[in-house]
């Protein structure tokens, strides 16, 4: 069976909170197999964008579409079922469960068992258990979590908890993975591993990655293209080196974080 993997198309998206325009006519196409970074100063609309894509917010106008299906207006669970998974800024792990069990919860959610049946391992969740455990193995390997698979999630350093959350999202077998500030609160070392892991997910996880992140250096390093939001508007979408050199982007960041656009070596050709 061939899986339809079209682009995620965001067209003229607007989101209004009373007098505040969180998003103004944002248009961007997220291609399959790419890492698309989304950057912007505080309040630029990054989280609003991810919340519109995942059905948490309903856009005021515009459309979000994938594989010919309109996504705006669908409920979050229905959007997950179309192949879009996400992680959250603040971990949503079950701390008393192991890393493996947390990832298994992602599998159970995909198959519609729900938390209680999954935790108690009753009904179909029990019958499918060994098959699902086999499915979880490669995900743990991909994210470098195999050695700590049986550790309790709440015993892990924050960076590994974030990685576990990414593994749980991948257990939903998404075609698009949305990462909401995966580097927040993590160490420099974690951030370096994160770059490698995001590339691995793109190359071997069969899904595209949309990455929202404050760490601009990291976004520039790992993204194939970068979208820049400022005051709810999309200033540009282009390759990292082009974005970093654009004066509108520099202006958007001026006075916010002067080092934010001091970037590692980027291919300019
Ligand atoms: N639920 C809400 N109610 C009212 N205003 C909101 C709500 N969510 C976001 N906003 C406003 O919309 C604008 C965009 O916020 P958003 O959180 O999307 O930006 P952001 O780029 O993710 O910021 P940060 O980097 O600080 O997380 C801000 O002015 C914010 O105050």
Automatic annotation (TrEMBL):
It comes from Nocardioides endophyticus. SUPFAM superfamilies: P-loop containing nucleoside triphosphate hydrolases (SSF52540). Residues 8-256 form the ABC transporter domain. One of its GO terms (molecular function) is ATP binding. Keywords: ATP-binding, Nucleotide-binding, Transport. This is ABC transporter ATP-binding protein.
């Amino acid at each position: 069976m061939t899986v339809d993997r079209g682009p995620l198309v965001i067209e003229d998206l607007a989101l209004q909170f009373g007098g505040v325009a969180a998003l103004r006519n944002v248009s961007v196409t997220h291609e399959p197999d790419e890492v698309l970074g989304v950057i912007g100063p505080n309040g630029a609309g990054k989280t609003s964008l991810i919340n519109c894509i995942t059905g948490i917010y309903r856009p005021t106008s515009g459309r979000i579409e994938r594989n010919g299906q309109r996504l705006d207006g669908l409920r979050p669970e229905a959007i997950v079922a179309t192949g879009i998974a996400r992680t959250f800024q603040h971990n949503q792990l079950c701390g008393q469960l192991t890393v493996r069990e947390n990832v298994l919860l992602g599998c159970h959610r995909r198959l519609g068992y729900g938390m209680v049946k999954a935790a108690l391992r009753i009904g179909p969740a029990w019958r499918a258990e060994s098959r699902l455990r086999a499915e979880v193995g490669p995900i743990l390997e991909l994210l470098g979590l195999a050695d700590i698979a049986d550790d309790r999630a709440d015993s892990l350093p924050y960076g590994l908890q974030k990685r576990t959350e990414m593994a749980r999202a991948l257990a939903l077998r998404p075609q698009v993975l949305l990462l909401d500030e995966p580097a927040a609160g993590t160490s420099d070392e974690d951030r370096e591993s994160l770059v490698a892991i995001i590339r691995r997910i793109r190359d071997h996880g069969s899904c595209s990655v949309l990455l929202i992140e404050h760490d601009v250096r990291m976004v520039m390093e790992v993204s194939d293209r970068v979208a820049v939001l400022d005051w709810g508007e999309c200033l540009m979408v282009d390759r990292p080196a082009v974005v970093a050199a654009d004066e509108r982007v520099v202006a958007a960041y001026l006075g916010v974080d002067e080092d934010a656009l001091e970037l590692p070596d980027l291919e300019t050709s």
